[in-house]
Amino acid sequence: MGGETDISERFDMMPLGIVIRRTPGVTRWAKWSWKATGILPGAPPADWQLLRKEADITEYHIATLPLEMHGADAEAYLQGLSAKVPCVYVILRESDEPTRPLSALLVTASPYEAQDYADNGEDLVEKVAMPEGLVAWVRDFALAHHEEEIFKKRRRDKKRIDKIEDGIGDARIVQVSDVYRSPTSSRKGRLQ
């Protein structure tokens, strides 16, 4: 197995606690507004644990999810780290339970993966700023596994394509003249 990398060397994981803030809604149709506001690196498991309550504003540690890092996604992690404020993306989905209106599905450092979830229209994707220690951890992992793709210019093959015109018209229908011809004048006379 010379030259192969052990799969465990190209994978790492860190548990992240997801913090959600509930504030009063700004419209009469939405009683509450929910937003992911923080992450807790290395947090223990939680299930909607109350963290803080001030007047009508409440913060909950709703869940702890693994931030999984894969070596194949190193380019995506570096892209995310190049942002003005590096972020992780928390993927949330509405639930039918009134006391727990959101469930946390995933947390990722890949903006590409987050975009896939944003495109489906069912999930809520929230950006949460990474603490400095998490930025360093993600950067170290991404740099250790990033492989620069060498640009390869395509070369034309030597095949002559000017001899046969495939796909022009239907071979079963006899053409009197060129298929690219302009309409004949006799046809114009009939239309008038």
Short description:
The protein has 192 residues and is an alpha+beta fold. The chain contains four helices and seven strands. Helix 1 runs antiparallel to helix 3.
Walk me through what this model shows.
The protein is built from 4 helices and 7 strands; from the N terminus they run ββββαββαβαα. It has helices at 74-81, 111-119, 132-145, 185-191, and strands at residues 11-24, 32-41, 49-54, 57-70, 87-94, 102-108, 124-129. Strand 5 (87-94) and strand 6 (102-108) form a beta hairpin. Helix 1 (74-81) packs antiparallel against helix 3 (132-145). It has one domain (9-145). Helix content is 20%, strand content 34%. It has a 4-stranded antiparallel beta sheet, covered by helices on one side. Strands 6-5-7 form a 3-stranded antiparallel beta sheet, with helices on one face. The chain is elongated, with a radius of gyration of 28 Å. It has 192 residues and is an alpha+beta fold. This is Molybdopterin-guanine dinucleotide biosynthesis protein A. InterPro entries: DUF3305 (IPR021736).
